[in-house]
Design goal:
D-amino Acid Aminotransferase, Chain A, domain 1, 4-stranded antiparallel sheet, binds D-MYO-inositol-1,4,5-triphosphate, 2 domains, binds adenosine-5'-triphosphate, inositol tetrakisphosphate kinase activity, 290 residues, 5-stranded antiparallel sheet, alpha+beta
Length: 290
Amino acid sequence: MFKVPDHQVAGHRADGGTLGPLVDDLGRFYKPLQSDQRGDTEVAFYNSLCSNTEIPSDIRELFPVFHGTQIIEASDGSGPQPHMVLEDLVAGRVNPSVMDIKMGSRTWYPEASEKYIQKCLEKDRKGTSVSLGFRISGLKAYQSSKAAFWQPVKKVVDSFNADDVRLALRKFVSSNLSLGSNADPDCLYASTVYSHGGGILAQLSRLKQWFEVQTNYHFYSCSILIFYDGESALDGCADPKLKLVDFAHVVDGHGVIDHNFLGGLCSLIKFIGDIVDEDNKCTKCEVKLA
Ligand SMILES: Nc1ncnc2c1ncn2[C@@H]1O[C@H](COP(=O)(O)OP(=O)(O)OP(=O)(O)O)[C@@H](O)[C@H]1O
Ligand SMILES: O=P(O)(O)O[C@@H]1[C@H](O)[C@H](O)[C@@H](OP(=O)(O)O)[C@H](OP(=O)(O)O)[C@H]1O
């Protein structure tokens, strides 16, 4: 009944006998409560979200539905453990392309220990968090039934610089990656995934509007998950979605906007917007040449 989610692209994985999330065939995602208060913090956030009447309905939809907690057999053989029962955001999608983007120029929260701050700061500097305000934590881009997916290993993703991030965001919406790493990504799906009405850019802009006014929460080390139907994208039915996950380090906003997350969001919107603008220019050139 429970299995390791094929669509998982980052975080703690359950395979190899380690502790990680599981999914069932009913569209539910079981995330083990992490140690050191992280699990309790995430459960408290979901409970707060459920009772917070200030959150607009279209913003609430960006968060997984929370079905409480349940004791199930943990993936690491440690026996029955408490898990958060969440909506499996990618359930039912055939060959989804998925990207996890960890938000913020810093992933550590102010009240953290010096040791934890140093751990996060090292990663934030090594990756693009400090320089860009976000970093890609993992991704997989569907190519075809033969080529399957482009899914760079964690070590490669962790070493991304700004140019690599730009290229990964272009590859994420391309169909020709199986032609080899030197092929210029065709960004064939940039329009249907990023820019068309209701696409990722529109969803990011709506999220930005909320972050410009919400002062209840500061979302440290939280991820934006973007995904679409890789197999249907060719027919223009990509159904791109943006969701927020990983609330193990959400803290009270104390009436101040979350400028750390908001700054990363503005930067991500710029990166994706530039890809769309470039794609539009190429399309116009092709039309003129035709
Ligand atoms: N509700 C969900 N539905 C589907 N997939 C999800 C869901 N929540 C998380 N995932 C998948 O699991 C991955 C890890 O999720 P999450 O960040 O919550 O785990 P984590 O172990 O806390 O990560 P980290 O190591 O960054 O703290 C995400 O990148 C995504 O692929
Ligand atoms: O991004 P990576 O390289 O996978 O590293 C993990 C990531 O930084 C997580 O945010 C962190 O969980 P916390 O921030 O909640 O500590 C986890 O620590 P952990 O392994 O001690 O859980 C790291 O392993």
